[in-house]
């Protein structure tokens, strides 16, 4: 199992996070992951612009309204299609004081030519209303679980048939799948993976932080209808299906859900396990399934793709600080074969 310090050494972030070599620095508390310079505005780096929030009424997910933002880097030129990053829970992804601060990270990495010129699209889950409520702030709208935690292709269709064509009316981004990344936190992470699982020809690079690979989307059999699986089914599908050409980075904390605040969706966030599952164990099961699928395909000499997977387990709870700290390195890893 990969542990946090090994990956941080590769990123050059071990000292400021673990502080093991600094006898005068205070000990790091579990879950503390300070952001590095790539997540903060830098002198001389053009910030680009963030357009939005824009409002969208879906026909594929009827009765819902979404908000979305578009990050346009300063280096964007219409004559050359940009790379594309799509991130779920856009209301938190674009928060300049949040854990991720993705537009700032993109601006810094693009300026250093460590990733390609990348258009960012940040989407909220839907809300069942005529207009998206201004009162939600960075909180969750009421249709999040129905969109993010179910493992069908509805959200993939919404993204590929509605939102991205809407963005394409104004901005050009690549049709090449290797130039696209999709990501999210928590239920947004499983949502991102679900898009890649169903549509790997459109997205096959996935950022998954504190992913909710649990049974939130499960529906028991009733009224003559069979049971419907939630995210708990993915390790089984991965093991029983030939590997797909998916590159995925998994991040989670060994204390995931411990000491987390309760919400209407998760009233029992007081322990490592609840009625939906065990979050960290579910992430370990995902990693184990990917490794098994690759090993089984190798042993059988199966021709075809393999999963390209890496991971970091930290000691945080169900919050985004570690994912935010790691994000610049994850984006470099996603585009590590980009030709500058």
Helical residues, percent: 25-40%
Element string (H = helix, E = strand): HHEEEHHEHHEHEHEEEHEH
Spatial sequence of strands, sheet with the most strands:
1-2-4-3-5-6-7-10
Taken from the alpha-carbon principal axes, the silhouette is globular
Helix/strand structural class? alpha/beta
Strand element count: 10
What is the overall pLDDT average?
90
Radius of gyration over all CA atoms, rounded: 19 Å
Largest sheet: 8 strands, mixed
| Number of discrete helical segments | 10
Which spans of ≥5 residues are poorly predicted at pLDDT below 50?
Answer: 5-22, 262-270
In percent, how much strand structure appears in the residues? 15-25%
Distance between the termini: 32 Å
Summed up, what is this model?
The chain has 340 residues and is of the alpha/beta class. It contains ten helices and ten strands. It is globular, with a radius of gyration of 19 Å.
Describe this structure in words.
It contains ten helices and ten strands. It has 340 residues and is α/β, with parallel strands linked by helices. An eight-stranded mixed beta sheet has the order 1-2-4-3-5-6-7-10, sandwiched between helices. Strand 6, helix 8 and strand 7 form a beta-alpha-beta unit. About 8% of the residues have low confidence.
What are the main properties of this structure?
single chain, alpha/beta, eight-stranded mixed beta sheet, 10 strands, 30% helix
